[in-house]
Amino acid sequence: MKIAVIYGSVRQNRQGIRVAKYIVNQLNERGMDNTLVDAMDHQLPFLDKMYKEYKGDAPEEIENVHQIFESVDGFIIVSGEYNHGLPPALKNLLDHYQSEYHFKPSGLVTYSAGMFGGVRAAMHLRAVTSELGMPSVPTTFPVPSVGKNFDEEGNTDNEHIARGFDRFLKEFVWYTEALKAKRDTDGKP
Ligand SMILES: Cc1cc2nc3c(=O)[nH]c(=O)nc-3n(C[C@H](O)[C@H](O)[C@H](O)COP(=O)(O)O)c2cc1C
């Protein structure tokens, strides 16, 4: 089972990278195969054509992300909340792809500088991920006060956060394994 962790803030002073690092560290500690897809590292152009529209002739960076998304069994999306919606680089990255997501689950991790943990962005993401064919698992993982709760390496001493992540991950893994087993036996419809 392989997981893509998608993170989409490209601000110079971005804080959510702390949460993305936390997730990656947690998956590594549990021996779970994962890849961080950071929009800062994968600088996709503003959407012109979707991957499929390049018909095998996509620019290198668009191709690289396609290969990763195609190879994974589930997506953990780490999203900030910009004006109650998604960060634009995250939406831009997600919109480039389609069939890569199909019949695989997503898990929604949101964060904010304030106390609400990006829950309004999570509600947008529910709609977006459903349309993309990677419906989100019920439990979300909202992280408030991101700059205070995590250091730059993604460590936290907040036990409430650690417990919340554990609950979220157990459920996400359950759905990821279930859908993988079904794809392995029956393929995609
Ligand atoms: C353009 C913009 C809009 C924002 N809108 C919200 C918002 O609607 N709700 C909120 O809780 N925080 C909002 N914030 C504050 C973010 O929660 C905080 O800056 C967070 O660190 C952004 O994620 P990033 O650092 O990974 O880019 C906003 C920040 C920016 C830059």
Structure, described:
This protein is of the alpha/beta class and 189 residues long. It is built from six helices and five strands. It has helices spanning 17-29, 60-71, 88-95, 119-132, 146-149, 159-186, and strands at 2-7, 33-38, 74-79, 106-111, 141-143. The longest helix has 28 residues, at 159-186. The chain starts with a strand and ends with a helix. The mean pLDDT is 98. Bound molecules: flavin mononucleotide (FMN).
Task: Specify the CATH homologous superfamily.
Answer: Flavodoxin domain
Ions, cofactors, ligands: which are bound?
flavin mononucleotide
CATH structural architecture: 3-Layer(aba) Sandwich
Q: Strands of the largest sheet, in order across it?
A: 2-1-3-4-5
What is the makeup of the main sheet? 5 strands, parallel
Shape: globular
CATH class designation:
Alpha Beta
Number of helices: 6
Residue ranges: pLDDT <50 for 5 or more in a row?
Answer: none
| CATH fold description | Rossmann fold
SS elements, strand count: 5
Secondary structure: helix percent: 40-55%
Using only CA atoms, what is the Rg?
16 Å
Total domains:
1
The helix/strand class is alpha/beta
Q: End-to-end span in angstroms?
A: 20 Å
- Share of β-strand residues: 5-15%
Listing every helix as H and every strand as E from the N terminus to the C terminus, the arrangement reads: EHEHEHEHEHH
Mean pLDDT: 98
